[in-house]
Design brief:
three-stranded antiparallel beta sheet; elongated
C-alpha cells in the first residue's frame, strides 16, 4: 500500500515539470524563431508479477512503477515566415542559426528580430551582437538591403556592411536551450549552412497554441487525479493507524 505514495508523488513531480515546460512554450508563442520543448516521460523500477495457485508460483509479466521525467527535447521544425516590414528583421528558410556574441561567449538562434545598439552594431535585443563572417556587424544606417545570402548593404547597394554568419550543426542533440529561442553549442563544431535569408520577415515560433492548451488541460487532470488519490491513501493510512492503536 505504501508503494502508492511513491508512485503518486513521482507522477505529480513529473506532471509539474511537464506543466512548467508547457507554460514556457505558451509564453514564447510570439517569440520569433522559438522552438517548442517537450517532456519525454519514462518509468522506473520494473517489477515481476507472479501468480500463486495450486500448481505453485508462475510469472505472468512485469509492471512498471513510478512515472518519471526522462528528458526534455526540442522540436527544431520550421515555423514559417511572417512579414514585419522592418528592414533589420530577417527570417531563415532551411536549417541554420544566426550567431550572436554575448558577454559569456557565442550563442545561436533563429530569432532574426534585430535592432541597432548605441554604437550602431546590429544586435539581438537582450542577448548580444549579431556576428558577421568578419566579426560583429556595424551599420551607418538602418535603411539597408539584405539579400538571400545575408549580405548587408545600403539600399542603393553602393556600400557593404558585412555578411550575416549563418551556421548549422550535424547533431542538434548537442545544443542546449538557455533562454527563449537561444542555444549553446556545448563544444559542438558549427558547420556551413545552406539556409536562405528573407529580409523584412521573421520566423514564427513552431508552438501550436491549441495543442499546448490541450496538453496543459490533460496534465492538469492527471495532476488533480493523482493528488485526489494521494489524499485517499493518506486517509486510509490514518484509519489504519487509528484502528491499530485501538487494538
Amino acid at each position: 500500500m505504501f508503494q502508492g505514495y511513491y508512485d503518486l508523488a513521482s507522477n505529480m513531480i513529473t506532471q509539474n515539470r511537464n506543466m512548467n515546460i508547457i507554460s514556457n512554450n505558451i509564453s514564447n508563442v510570439s517569440t520569433p524563431g522559438y522552438k517548442e520543448d517537450r517532456l519525454i516521460e519514462s518509468t522506473f523500477r520494473e517489477e515481476m508479477i507472479y501468480r500463486y495457485d495450486q500448481y505453485g508460483k508462475t510469472q505472468v509479466g512485469t509492471v512498471s512503477r513510478m512515472n518519471i521525467a526522462d528528458e526534455r527535447v526540442t522540436d527544431y521544425s520550421e515555423g514559417g515566415l511572417r512579414e514585419t516590414g522592418s528592414p533589420l528583421d530577417v527570417g531563415l528558410t532551411g536549417n541554420g542559426f544566426f550567431v550572436i556574441q554575448t558577454n559569456n561567449g557565442v550563442v545561436y538562434t533563429r530569432n532574426g528580430s534585430f535592432n541597432l545598439d548605441d554604437q550602431r552594431y546590429l544586435v539581438l535585443p537582450g542577448i548580444g551582437r549579431v556576428m558577421g563572417t568578419n566579426g560583429p556587424i556595424q551599420l551607418t544606417t538602418d535603411e539597408v538591403g539584405i539579400d538571400s545570402q545575408g549580405n548587408i548593404t545600403t539600399e542603393d547597394g553602393l556600400q557593404t556592411f558585412g555578411q550575416l554568419q549563418i551556421v548549422d550543426f550535424a547533431d542538434y542533440n548537442q545544443l542546449t536551450k538557455i533562454t527563449g529561442g537561444v542555444f549553446q553549442a556545448n563544444g559542438a563544431a558549427p558547420q556551413a549552412s545552406t539556409a536562405k535569408v528573407t529580409q523584412r520577415y521573421t520566423e514564427y515560433s513552431n508552438v501550436n497554441m491549441a495543442e499546448q492548451m490541450t496538453r496543459m488541460m490533460s496534465g492538469q487532470r492527471v495532476l488533480q487525479g493523482s493528488a485526489q488519490i494521494l489524499k485517499i491513501y493518506d486517509q486510509l493510512t490514518g484509519k489504519i493507524v487509528t484502528l491499530g492503536s485501538a487494538t
